[in-house]
Design brief:
The protein is of the alpha+beta class. The chain has eight helices and five strands; from the N terminus they run ααααααβββαβαβ.
């Protein structure tokens, strides 16, 4: 089913036709890690509102998160009738609309999903930003200086990746309750400096497409 509560909440949070307000405390991407943690351990609050589960139970032995970058609600609406995979979520589960964080960048949201920290706490908020520790502009996911075409050029400075990225991860928290985590990532960046930090506590499984 489609979660109508999520649609109403997000519509009510709109500032105008062009601008929506992130619902950080409820229907927001930033609450996904807490929900996963709760579903697997029973600890803490749900994160996302209970309505995202519909009639489904609140505890699970296994949870699979599929992160499709840039595939927002607009694309879900466009393709749900054409895709048996997407349609299955509506027929057998619940599809909920969520707000993005601000800024709505890949760097911010990849960091949140691994660390469990909202963008305001993770410190990783854009493809490029000024890093005071280096007094320069960096590309965090590439672990490079902005403008460099090669990955890992920050290594020449001697700075550690742990100094630039959040060292708290969702997988460490799950590990404390005996939950094993696996991160399937493309081999090009599976063991990058960024991935090594934010995936700590999980087994990384590289793949090729």
């Amino acid at each position: 089913m489609i979660n109508s509560d999520s649609l109403k909440a997000i519509e009510n949070a709109r500032l105008n036709d062009n601008i929506g307000k992130p619902l950080y405390d409820s229907y927001c991407f930033s609450q996904i890690p807490q929900m996963i943690y709760h579903l697997l351990t029973g600890q803490g609050n749900m994160g996302l509102p209970r309505s995202v589960l519909g009639e489904l139970p609140e505890r699970y032995d296994k949870v699979i998160l599929i992160f499709v970058d840039a595939f927002g609600w607009r694309f879900f609406q466009d393709y749900v009738e054409q895709s048996e995979f997407l349609k299955r979520f509506v027929v057998e589960g619940v599809a909920s609309k969520l707000t993005t964080q601000f800024p709505s960048t890949t760097a911010a949201h990849v960091t949140t999903i691994h660390s469990g920290l909202p963008v305001g706490e993770s410190g990783v908020f854009h493809w490029f930003y000024y890093e005071p520790l280096l007094d320069d502009i960096i590309a965090p996911l590439m672990f490079s200086f902005a403008g460099d075409k090669q990955r890992g050029t920050l290594q020449t400075t001697g700075i550690s990746e742990q100094s630039l990225f959040p060292t708290q991860t969702l997988y460490q928290k799950l590990q404390q309750y005996g939950v094993k985590s696996y991160c399937f990532q493309h081999y090009n960046y599976a063991y990058s400096p960024f991935s090594r930090v934010v995936c700590d506590g999980a087994s990384i499984v590289p793949y090729k497409t």
